[in-house]
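As a warm-up, study this chain.
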Amino acid sequence: MIAQLETKRYSTDEYLELEIVADIRNEYRNGDIIPMNGGTPNHNDIAGNLYILLKSTLKGKKYRTFYADQRLWIPSVTVYTYPDVMVVPQPIELQTGRKDTVVNPCFIAEVLSKSTQNYDRSEKFIAYRSIPTFQEYLLIDQYRIHVEHHVKTAPHQWLFSEYDDPNATLPLSSFEFQIQIADLYESIEFEA
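Now compare it with the structure written out below.
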């Protein structure tokens, strides 16, 4: 007979206590704690490029822009996560009793990696869509020029667009702002 190892399930309170002292960020998915390992230089540069573009464009407007370390709580699916880039309208809404966890993003971007791309496109996007304020989602490939853009057009309706041309312009409807695809990939060196 083969013994089965029991997997520990964590409460949200246990996760939050552990996260305060953790050396790395961890995502919480309905009782499971999943380590969010560090990204590649391309991953970091792409997320940073987008953050800088958004931060400078939204300066003086009623939005806050966050990069990698801001925790998001999605109560409908019991998920805590750290989007690569997130924009939150002001006033920021925080999880009840917390000063470090937002609940009201309007825009989220994830830079795809081989280990997370399926999750980012499916279950994570489903979780994000349960957030009432969420309106726009970017998925940016770090291995080639390819951006997937989802915009909420009505309740339960999303418009999907793809961009593979570095000379293309991507319109962000949440902010009436356009991004050049080449600007997202500035300084990126793709593997041969």
